[in-house]
Amino acid sequence: MDLNALRGFFKTSPYMVDLGVEPVAVAPGQVSTVLTITTRLHQHTGQVHAGVMATMAAHTMGSAAQTLAPAGHWAITAELKTSQLRPARGERLVCEAVVIKAGKTLSFTEAAVYAESAGQRVLVMKASATMALVKQD
């Protein structure tokens, strides 16, 4: 899958489009995405809502798994774990996901989410997910 194909794949997910998550890099088993931070993504404390970061991480990890999925299969989140390490504030979020182990029916993935501001990057969330590889209808 090349970057143009991945961008098309993201456009088929209305929730990703609504949030504004955009893919910026892809390689076999690896995907990076970005999201501009706006106040609509904040919770009452003025930081990015953890659910936004978890969603970004889950979809980015699923996309990384999709790059290695057998033809005719979708990578679907079966299990997701996130750890918010510190508040996310800044100009944008960057998520880097990688497939740790690709399988025929399950793939294990990990992601790091960073908050960027003025060229400085701070790790704000770590995530891992098991992706089920299911036949497309």
Question: Briefly, what is this?
Answer:
The chain has three helices and six strands.
Characterise the protein shown here.
By secondary structure, the chain is α+β, with helices and mostly antiparallel strands. It has three helices and six strands; from the N terminus they run ααββαββββ. The chain has one domain (3-135): Thiol Ester Dehydrase, Chain A (Roll).
The percent range for strand residues is over 45%
Q: What is the terminal separation in angstroms?
A: 20 Å
The first-level CATH class name: Alpha Beta
| CATH H-tier superfamily | Hotdog Thioesterase
CATH topology: Thiol Ester Dehydrase, Chain A
Describe the strand arrangement of the main beta sheet, using strand numbers: 1-2-4-5-6-3
Supply the helix-strand structural class.
alpha+beta
**Could you give a short account of the major beta sheet?**
6 strands, antiparallel
User: What is the typical, i.e. mean, pLDDT?
Assistant: 97
Find the count of extended strands (DSSP E, 2+ residues). 6
Q: Examine the secondary-structure arrangement and name the CATH architecture.
A: Roll
Which consecutive residue ranges, at least 5 long each, have pLDDT under 50? Answer: none
Q: In sequence order, what are the helices and strands, one letter per element?
A: HHEEHEEEE
Supply the number of structural domains: 1
- Net shape: globular
Q: Tell me the helix content.
A: 10-25%
- Give me the Rg, rounded: 14 Å
Number of continuous helical runs: 3
Annotate the secondary structure layout.
Layout: H1 3-11, H2 14-19, E1 22-27, E2 30-36, H3 50-66, E3 73-84, E4 92-102, E5 106-117, E6 120-135
Antiparallel strand pairs: 1-2, 2-4, 3-6, 4-5, 5-6
